[in-house]
Amino acid sequence: MRVFAVSDLHLDYAPNRAWVEQLSLQDYQEDALILAGDLSDRLALIQDGFKALMRRFATVLYVPGNHDLWVHREGMHDSFEKFDAVCETASAQGICLTPFRHEDLAIVPLLGWYDYSFGRPGDYLRSAWADYRACRWPHGYDDAAITRWFVERNPAHSAPELEGADKIISFSHFLPRIDLMPDRIPEKHRRLYPILGAHVLDVQLRQLGASMHIYGHSHVNRHITVDGVTYINNAYGYPSEAHFTARQLLHVYTTA
């Protein structure tokens, strides 16, 4: 079995939907796809994306991204309700939301959000970042509390699917550490760093014993090893980003 990874398909855009539809219906029938969040803020498009990918892969593993939890166009009470709806839609289509085991390989999805462990948001970020308007949370939930709510639901290192696994791959939508961002990022774009992820995700993936971690969200593709863990971002991205995103599936592992 081969394992492929992609994130940030953003199926709100017709060219992105067309790319999914052109994927082979034969080439991946025995393979797994890690789908690291951000399909769409529209539940109908998320469902369509799940259906299309399940026709192509034997297994599709998924964690929601921030766009997937927007509620401003869906009429839901809050983003926790949207999370439940997205997960129910995924389960109904056969999408895997829990640890997956194949022979000596375990693949573990990690939920997350951002808790400002990468920095505090400034006035620009507070006014420009769409999550602050498009997501809605119950009273008393700040971003740190939202992060805790998600990461407390992640599997522990004692999960039965991990027992005896020779290779553990974890994945999240959000970044587990800010030093995954390359030095070349201009200073003006570093204002976004506070909303990229949470350090607690790195703590969790290392407790699991993961030697590879797939992530998304930043739209900055990377393949880098830090302190024994290989981190990979293969974001598809917006149509306007075609000049710097790979815009293809990435083969990340093959079982023996």
From TrEMBL:
Family annotation (Gene3D superfamilies): 3.60.21.10
Organism domain of life: Bacteria
Domain Calcineurin-like phosphoesterase: 1-220
Pfam families (UniProt xref): Metallophos
SUPFAM superfamilies: Metallo-dependent phosphatases
Family matches, as InterPro entries: Calcineurin-like_PHP, Metallo-depent_PP-like, Pantetheine_PDE
PANTHER family: [ACYL-CARRIER-PROTEIN] PHOSPHODIESTERASE PPTH (PTHR36492:SF2), PTHR36492
Name by which UniProt lists this protein: Metallophosphoesterase
Species annotation: Dyella flava
Phylogenetic lineage: Bacteria, Pseudomonadati, Pseudomonadota, Gammaproteobacteria, Lysobacterales
